Amino acid sequence: MGYEFMRLIVMFDLPIQSNKQIRIYNKFRKFLISKGYIMLQYSVYSKILNNRDTAIHHIETVKNNCPVEGQIRMILLTEKQYSRMLIVIGGRSRSEDVITIDPFIKL
Question: Which residues sit opposite 71 in a β-bridge?
């Protein structure tokens, strides 16, 4: 088992017209946060993973906790591919700056 760092990105668009749908949306969002995902932007969350095997496990975990309505998409990228992401407007969030593969966090 190699150690090629991966990024799993979860993008979702869930209905929020009723109070029940809002609760389902919040439950899914809190599930992602509890599993260590960070918000890149509204309804787009990312998690850094040690390798592809761990990523496959997380993909299954997210699939098993998806709501039945709405749209949820996932994409798996290597850390090198993720680092090439262009930020057109705005900048990196504080959580993106803190959570990296670097074992020494500089604040």
Answer: 13
CB of 18 closer than 8 Å to CB of 6? no
Q: What is the domain range of residue 78?
A: 6-98
Tokens describing residue 72:
């949820």
Contact 18, 86 (CB under 8 A): no
At 38-73, the pLDDT tens digits run 999 899 999 999 999 999 999 999 999 999 999 999
What CATH number does the domain containing 69 carry? Answer: 3.30.70.240
Task: Answer yes or no: is 21 within a domain.
Answer: yes
- Amino acid letter at 31? F
Residue 78 in domain: yes
54 and 4 in contact (C-beta within 8 Å)? no
Q: Is the pLDDT of residue 107 over 60?
A: no
